[in-house]
TrEMBL record:
One Pfam family cited in the UniProt record for this chain: PITH
Domain PITH, first and last residues per copy: 22-192
Source lineage: Eukaryota, Fungi, Dikarya, Basidiomycota, Agaricomycotina
GO CC entries: cytoplasm; nucleus
Family note: Belongs to the PITHD1 family.
SUPFAM superfamilies in UniProt: Galactose-binding domain-like
InterPro entries for this protein: Galactose-bd-like_sf, PITH1-like, PITH_dom, PITH_dom_sf
Disordered: annotated span: 1-32
Native organism: Boletus reticuloceps
Name of the protein described by the UniProt record: Galactose-binding domain-like protein
Basic and acidic residues: bias regions: 10-25
Amino acid sequence: MPDNHHHHHNEGCGHESHDHDHDSGDLGPNDNLFPHIDRPHVVALNAVGPGASVIKPWHARMNEQVYLESDADEQLIIRVPFTGSVKLRSLLLKAGPGDQTPQKIALFANEPSLDFDDVSDKSPAQEFEVAVGREVGEYAVRATKFTNVTSVTLFIPSNQGADTTRVYYIGFLGQWTQRKSNPVITVYEAQANIADHDKVQGTEGAFSTPHT
């Protein structure tokens, strides 16, 4: 464990000059993916209120006025799509209080339509035990499982004993790249190719006579 921390400090060295540029001090880690979350399309299942309510900017991470609570039982699914491709470094979570804290969280990559029916058939990319506390916990992910992620789904199977589960804040740290050729454009390319072939066959005759 300690090795990891040394690692972070080394990575962090370059950030210092960056922090001086903005005096606000609460912009947080500059690899926070908040601006790249497709907030209008965040979905929470078995939840009271919209899923996007817990996707907050860094400065609002400790705010306890706005939260998401599970509805019929303690389980929650929160689907978070990104506006591009993400290399995820860690999940940030503030939940609770007390028994309403999730016991664990299962994290899925690129399962944008996961629901309670099929969540038990799929194995998560990673699972985390959640510690009870008021602060924001940072959970480092296995880089190899989260290198090319367009959506992340959190599944909370159980909590510490309460009837419902409460989540205040969800955030992500990592690198974002603009979506290049997937997923939509690939489909068009396939169709365009077919059209091109037709054109070639149809026009071959026309070009065989020299136009000089």
